[in-house]
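Write out the 3D structure for:
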Amino acid sequence: MGTTKLTRKEILAEDPVHFAIIRFVEFFRTQGKVIGMAAICMAVLAVGGYLGIDYLQGREQQIQQQLARALDIFHAKIDPNASEDPFAKGPEPVFRTDNARYQAALKELAFVSSKYSTGKLGVTARYYQGLCFLRLGQNNEALRALEEVRHNTKDRTLGYLAKKVLAGYYLTAKNWKASQEILEGMIKDPQCDLPKDDLNLELARLADAQGKREEALKLLRKSREENAGSGLQPLINQEITRLESSAK
């Protein structure tokens, strides 16, 4: 019985698995250089992405350390006999004057707010810059910084704290209307997470500053009833006693 010789094409047509393997090998043989370059590009991108993430994490850690240093300086102790170097006696800084303390804090905060202006750390730095400017009597700079924080969306609590500081500033400046609008707005705002009794206390002080003693007493008594057990109760009672005594 004779044998039938099949051509290569016919053999592959009868064995689709073998045909697929051959095609796969031939593809890598002809396209090996392109595939190799693609693999190298993917490896470079993967390494680059890893290094980029590592860099950003390191940069954020550096900013956090800088901010922590700035806050340490902001809350530093004052000693007229302190050395010119505030860190001469250890890691906790000590300054001769308040002015020197806030000037030093501003230098540290400026670095954070400029390098991380769009993030939460930058907003925190900007808030403390506003406080430093206020303590140094640089009111225009303080208002500019606090207004920025007031409208931020990165940290809602800091925004409310900035509003409270602004309300206090306007109270001191006798801009009664601006101070009242801020305080009443926060009290009515359901998203405001600052203690309501604290805000009512500020509002009562505002009323008292305008000579509205009875209105101030009404606010304080209402706050005392609505916030029983609050940590501010002793201070509220003290204010009520003071106003009642002055009325007599």
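The two ends are 134 Å apart (CA to CA).
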